[in-house]
Amino acid sequence: MAIFTIATPQRLTPAYNPIKFYFAGTNSGNAGYKFIFDIYQSGTANKIAEYRVLPEYGSGYGLIDLSRLLQSKVSFDFEPNNTTVYDAPNSHYQYDVRVGEEYLTVVQYFTPLTNNGGNVQINVVNSFVVGDQINIVQAGPGNPNLEGLQTVIAVGAGYLVVNSPWSLITNAALNGNIYYADGRTTITRNINNILKYYVFNGAIPWTQWPSYLYTDYYLTSPSDKFLTSIPQRNFYATLSQDLWMNAVYGGPGPGTHKIIFYNDAGESFEKSVLATDHVTGNAVGPNNHGTLTPIVGTLPLIKPNTEYYAYYYEHNGAQVTTDYRVYIDRRVRMEEHSIVFLDRYGSWGSFAFTGRAYERGTVTREQFNQDVPGYIDSGAGQWLYYTTDRGYINSYVSVDNTIDLNTDWMNEDMAAYFTELISSPYTYFKVSTYYENCELPASTQYVSCNIVTSSFEKYKQRNKNLIKQSITIKLANNDIVNG
């Protein structure tokens, strides 16, 4: 008995792409054969799912796609006030796959049949007991009365006797298989174990997934990446914008982890990564990069004449991601809106909307007509009513707020990233105010919102040199009206 691994997903995979395992079993030709897949939270006895899978027609392989299961195990980690680093336990999940098998319990006999008191004796070592109902399948024709359902009437060392007359046997040398009539099975678990695999909250586009390599995100070389699809070189952000980039802390393993920042003046700064989860969230935006320690130069990182800054991940003094450059966009009005959104790799990107903003509201209410109670004027002996009495009554009044937002001009890379904002399931916005001669804008708290815009054009600069985007958002929670 053996189960061999044919194909597995990569050790770290996006949860919303295929997560397929293929296995081959040496017993897969047995009657009633099924592969058993036991899925565990890695390193624990917490079984999150169990599947029984028939062998694939033709190849006999056991195939299972765990993407739907593992999608339910990841979500996101959003800490809007964080300016350092945080563990991201909800953004990833570690799992084990333990593969076993199940097939109909069978006793095969090859020794010729013999007579036992006028009934058929089958000569084979077995574990049957008197009264067992069994099903006999012979290797060929010759003994039709023995074929099918029988009852065990006697057992002994190395034989069993069934209630089939010996006189009807015409071919005593015919081999056969014996099964329990109730379909009893033999189950063996944990034959092949695939341990310590990870998924993260990501969904890689169809054309990019075949070329995905998890090692590109394991923080072991200067060309590796954060878990994000943000543009690496052509990203512009205002001073109010926040960015949180996820990184695979567990890739390089223990050691000294840091985020290194530098600006266009050649100054460099560092921030220690104190979170230790397999995936961490790292605050790196213009507004939320937090307190930095100078390496070369003086604080702050962003000065009034700074054109751009960049950041990368460092492990034990070695650069282990590519540089991500952020150009400072100073084309702002006194007030701007910015939206952070969950991007395709589970990080939090951001866009600023420095154009005109239009806020609109829609009131929804339920109305019903009630009888006007009025009153009886005892002096006149007449029923009357007050002009302030109500017939129609308003109930369950709520206010929906929508905001139309407009960006400034952007490049093609940002326009492509913007499409992820439009389709992102989780978005939050804030309003920032720039006072005169103030480099640090004052911002409101983030408020949850939903993107109402449902269509977009993916602009190319060869078709349109100047690219602007407009969207409509709706607050995720309605204002309630008292009554």
UniProtKB/TrEMBL annotation:
Designated name of the protein: Uncharacterized protein
